[in-house]
Amino acid sequence: MKTDYSIGIDIGGTNTDLGLVDSNGHCVVIQRFATEDHGNAIEFVDELVNQIKMMLSETGIHKISGIGVGVPNGNYYTGCIDNAVNLNFKGKIYLKDLIQERIDVNVVVSNDANAAAYGEMIYGAARRMRHFIMFTLGTGVGSGIVIDGKLVHGFDGYAGELGHAILHPNGRLCNCGRRGCLEQYTSARGIKKTYIELLQQSGKSLTEEEMEKINGKDISDRATQGDVLAIKTYRLVGDALGLAMANAVAFSSPEAIFLMGGPVKAGEVLLEPLRKSFNDNILSIYKGRVKILISGLNENQSAILGAAALTRA
Amino acid sequence: MKTDYSIGIDIGGTNTDLGLVDSNGHCVVIQRFATEDHGNAIEFVDELVNQIKMMLSETGIHKISGIGVGVPNGNYYTGCIDNAVNLNFKGKIYLKDLIQERIDVNVVVSNDANAAAYGEMIYGAARRMRHFIMFTLGTGVGSGIVIDGKLVHGFDGYAGELGHAILHPNGRLCNCGRRGCLEQYTSARGIKKTYIELLQQSGKSLTEEEMEKINGKDISDRATQGDVLAIKTYRLVGDALGLAMANAVAFSSPEAIFLMGGPVKAGEVLLEPLRKSFNDNILSIYKGRVKILISGLNENQSAILGAAALTRA
User: Fold this and answer.
1) What is the DSSP letter of A266?
2) Is residue A303 over pLDDT 80?
3) Tally of domains in chain A
4) Which of A148, A152, A158 comes nearest B285 by C-beta?
5) Cβ contact A247–B148 (<8 Å)
6) Are both A70 and A160 inside the same structural domain?
7) Which secondary structure element, helix H or strand E, spans residue B92, and what is its range?
8) B128 in contact with chain A, both atoms CB, cutoff 8 A
């Protein structure tokens, strides 16, 4: 098979990463520039296109099969970014059109969690799977759903927002304005919130500064070292995520559920209660039939690989 | 277009209905026999095949394009009925094979809610839709999910069990052995349970016999006549179903959600609180974009039409 290249772009609030990816899923080169340096979308796309051209020129690879972009609120059907909360450029950005005006190639846009799911299927541990769900745990919680070997986009391109499935009606206030969304309990921020609540309930008073300082790695380190409240924190996270995953199984009956992102690095302190909750909450017909797996992609490249994989969607 | 016929079979615990359906969705003839008269699957299939042969002989239509069967716990991939709770014949029944040994034609088996969804798409109000979800409210709550114009079966054929998504952890004990499943709050039985609970909370003591007698139609009639507790019952049903539907939207971003079944006949006493709950609980990106619709199929034929539609899946 002739080697074929595509470009994967991961647009985050702080940085934009782009990489040239071959058909075996190797990143030939990776570049980064600051998203937040650009106050409007036109300027941003100008810089992005310059970066792409520089990358192609430096590698001597001029023929690419497409450009895939993973971006918060990226819409597969329209190629737009719609009101992404964490980006400087607000409103509706016609990203696909803006790129194609400057580079004449196939451009595919989707949200970052969809890209992660597709990357797993094309280059990762879901290579032979046709039915699976990816949960990405980070600042928020995203999800990408693959059914019959295809990403689910839905009627208007917004499928797979399982981080905003309501788990606890009247629960924690979410950034989306509603209460009790899964992401309030299982994102990095949600985990920190739970740990601080447990500390406070145990009688410890914390200054704003002390609260600010606590991060996910601290909590997972403490849990591994036997800190009772940190362990309890991950048990609650596992309880919540296991229930949400069991409910997701009742929807699409997947072969596996994948996990990706910072909080997953906590390892068994999270995974053990998660497996228990999943098993307790899953309907009997699915019991023992759905694997819980960690993403098989190199963490530093997963977002780029996922975005590049979108060109094969 | 030449008229093409298929046979739709709806197997219930009490009766089995079968009908000859033309390509426009007209039932040419319908027959019924008692499922419960047959203690084992072989006997049952013998009777079923006799009924089919009788139907074809009486109508003079001998060429059919397939037989579709909607049955509780019917599996699309294997063609089996797996441990259906309400049928006399237990264990794994190789229904598709048993029929095909006797009649040489394409046979498709799926569960009754999947059949309902597919019937809606082929013959009903979802005719031009490629993304929708059907909730069937009856003794239990079933669901059928259509994505990209195809029924979702999942990895092992059990997708779409949204009646068993857990809505209230530690809630009402469900027949499935877990707690808080949607069907415990929104099935005919669940609605009756809520109404009786509210009556008892209001200080009314009910005999077993009085409780036994109350049926769904009573409760909806009372609600329409202004009975406060009956109205509150349907508000609670609407709250639960609206939340579950909003969560389902976050999964597959459908164009519409359809409702079918006895409890839906309550009309506005159910639909008004349902719409409110759906609207309150839906993530903003979907707001105003997902229709709530009642099945467009003739109620007496919908199960047969759905089963017949499966042959076109």
Assistant:
1) G
2) yes
3) 2
4) A158
5) no
6) no
7) strand B92-93
8) no
Q: Is B214 on the interface with A (CB under 8 A)?
A: no
Q: Which of residues 247-276 of B touch A (CB under 8 A)?
A: 247-248, 250-255
Q: What is the pLDDT of residues B213-241, one digit of tens each?
A: 999 999 999 999 999 999 999 999 999 99
In a domain, residue B49? The reply is: yes
Token pair belonging to A140? 């928020």
Query: Do residue A159 and residue A135 come from a single domain?
Result: yes
- Structure letter (DSSP) for residue B174: P
Q: Do B164 and A250 touch (CB under 8 A)?
A: yes
Same structural domain for residues A203 and A229?
Answer: yes
> Using CB atoms, which residue from B162, B169, B253 is nearest to A155?
B253
Q: Which residue of A has its CA nearest to B143?
A: A251
Where residue A148 sits, what CATH number does that domain have? 3.30.420.40
Q: Which residues contact B201 (CB under 8 A, 6 or more apart)?
A: none
Nearest partner of B130 among A157, A140, A260, A270, judged by Cα: A157
Distance CA A46, CA B226 (A): 64
Cα nearest neighbour of B179 on chain A? A281
Q: What CA–CA distances, in Å, run from A152 to A144, A305, B34?
A: 8, 19, 41
B291 contact A CB<8A: no
B130 and A254 in contact by Cβ < 8 A?
no
Nearest to A252 among B159, B178, B290 (CB): B159
> Distance (Å, rounded) from C-alpha B232 to C-alpha A27?
59
Q: Which residues pair with A68 in a beta bridge?
A: A8, A108
Task: Give A-chain residues touching B150 at CB under 8 angstroms.
Answer: 148
Q: Provide the strand spans (E) within chain A.
A: 5-11, 15-22, 27-34, 67-70, 81-82, 92-93, 107-110, 132-137, 141-147, 150-151, 256-260, 291-294
Instruction: Measure in Å the smallest separation between the Cα of B152 and chain A Cα atoms.
Output: 7
pLDDT tens column, A111-153: 999 999 999 999 999 999 999 999 999 989 999 999 999 999 9
Alpha carbon distance B247, A157 (integer Å): 16
Cβ <8 Å between A161 and B285:
yes
Other residues' Cβ atoms within 10 Å of the Cβ of residue B266: 23
Q: What is the mean pLDDT of residues A20-38?
A: 93
Interatomic CA distance for residues A243 and B192, integer angstroms:
27
B42 inside 8 A of chain A by CB: no
Residue B142 shares a structural domain with residue B14: no
Cα nearest neighbour of A256 on chain B: B155
In this structure, the answer to whether residues B79 and B149 fall within a common structural domain is no
Task: Tell me if A63 sits within 8 A of A22, measured CB to CB.
Answer: no
In a domain, B222, yes or no: yes
Q: Three-class SS of residue B78?
A: coil
pLDDT tens for each residue of A240-293: 999 999 999 999 999 999 999 999 999 999 999 999 999 999 999 999 999 999
* Residue B212 φ/ψ, nearest 5 degrees: -55, -45
Q: Same structural domain for residues A176 and A277?
A: yes
State the residue range of the domain holding B253. Answer: 128-294
Within-domain flag for A123: no
DSSP character for A74?
A: B
DSSP state for residue A280 in the 8-state scheme:
H
B286 plus B304 within the same structural domain: no
Please state the ipTM of this predicted complex. Answer: 0.93
